[in-house]
């Protein structure tokens, strides 16, 4: 299929956060393999993230607009990693000011895009697509359960805003959450605030998009994907994940690999005699533990008797002053042979995929969840914020493939209890078997004839039919 010759041109608009950009670039890679003409819209400081894709596909065009800024963001901030999760709303609102420049660019193109694929944080883009007369297709870097809950919240905000316990009885399995465990966007939303109204209206608009693409798969979320098809009134709800299995260029951050760290880690893992005996501990690219949390975690790991790899960030002097915790002096020596500490970046996907690793103590961010599923390791959940409590509910209550060992961004677990929970989970063969079954279902989904592969082929067909 050589669609680019037929003028099938698609504009890709990612949200500037690592966990959002990488999955959308993997999807973009798939479109490029089917010869679509692609333009990717970014601001200047996010351009380097595209390098692996641009190297593999030199035909990709970039559309670079200066970031319009926002009063609550420091000058120069263009990516969530530079400000933390509280930067989501102002970055969404700041990017919405690009509506005019995008319209002008579109109208100046001899061969303008026939569709816009945009990140679900950028729902205001749908209105722009409708004005241009092209389909707006929303790309969800999250799962169907989260999106079902967000849709319900934003459509009926008045009914939920003051509740301490929120029950979603209209959703399959009737999930319920205490208010503090709801997504951050719901908790931080300020009614009537112009920035937050852009966020809310964007989420509501997503439900009216031409199509929705999810980084999930049928065996994991069939009930919620089915629910969303009913809600949206059509079947253009595609699950194409785990996109990290479908793959794309440079998604494992190869440019960051420290050869010495790699060698030390994998030599250590190769020497582990028992398969599935090692616990991998990491909390994503943004979360820092407080001193009290780090101390509890360290004691818990010691008391558990389990072999482990702990990923700890390198802290700045300011972060130490602010009360964040680093691995105490002497800890590595005290657990020599049983535990390994990696300071800084770690090759997470490769570590999880090693035969010796059987568990992942994680904050339950969606990308980490999918990486664990693909590796066939059970998750020991410590959800903290954003969508993490919802993802933990899906795995613990709904799928029964995981356990919770702690919860809350500020919670300090009892170290003895934490050690016991780690020990029990790592000795639980039933959970390990369920994790392997889920991995097999994920692998099946992306094979020819699998549900994710078929949905991917269907999107390609839909887009290939579009004409200027």
From TrEMBL:
Keyword Methyltransferase: no
Enzyme Commission numbers on file: 2.4.1.-
Signal peptide per UniProt: none
PROSITE patterns per record: UDPGT (PS00375)
SUPFAM superfamilies for this protein: UDP-Glycosyltransferase/glycogen phosphorylase (SSF53756)
CDD domains: GT1_Gtf-like
Organism domain of life: Eukaryota
Keywords: Glycosyltransferase, Transferase
GO molecular function per UniProt: UDP-glucosyltransferase activity
Family to which this protein belongs: Belongs to the UDP-glycosyltransferase family.
Protein name as it appears in the record: Glycosyltransferase
Organism: Nicotiana attenuata
Gene name of the record: UGT89A2
